[in-house]
Amino acid sequence: MSVAQDHDKPADRRRRVTAQAVADAAGVSRSAVSRAFTPGAYLDESKRRIIEKVAHHMGYQPNALAAGLKDGRSHLVAVFVGNMRSTYDSEFVSALVGKLNALNKWPILIDGGDQRAEDAIEQVLRYPLDALILRGGSMPRALVTRCTKFGVPMISTGRIVQSPGVDNVCCRNADGTGLAAQVLIDKGRTRFGYLGGAPSFSSSAERRLGVIDVLDKAGLKLIAEATGDFTVETGRKIALKLLAEHKLDALVCANDASAIGALTAARELGLDVPCDLSLIGFDDIEMARWPNFDLSTVNNPIDDAVDQVIALLERRLAEPGKQSETIMIDPFFVPRGTH
Amino acid sequence: MSVAQDHDKPADRRRRVTAQAVADAAGVSRSAVSRAFTPGAYLDESKRRIIEKVAHHMGYQPNALAAGLKDGRSHLVAVFVGNMRSTYDSEFVSALVGKLNALNKWPILIDGGDQRAEDAIEQVLRYPLDALILRGGSMPRALVTRCTKFGVPMISTGRIVQSPGVDNVCCRNADGTGLAAQVLIDKGRTRFGYLGGAPSFSSSAERRLGVIDVLDKAGLKLIAEATGDFTVETGRKIALKLLAEHKLDALVCANDASAIGALTAARELGLDVPCDLSLIGFDDIEMARWPNFDLSTVNNPIDDAVDQVIALLERRLAEPGKQSETIMIDPFFVPRGTH
DNA sequence: CTGGATTCTGCACACGTGCCCACATAATGT
DNA sequence: ACATTATGTGGGCACGTGTGCAGAATCCAG
Question: Residue A265, SS3?
Answer without folding.
Answer: helix
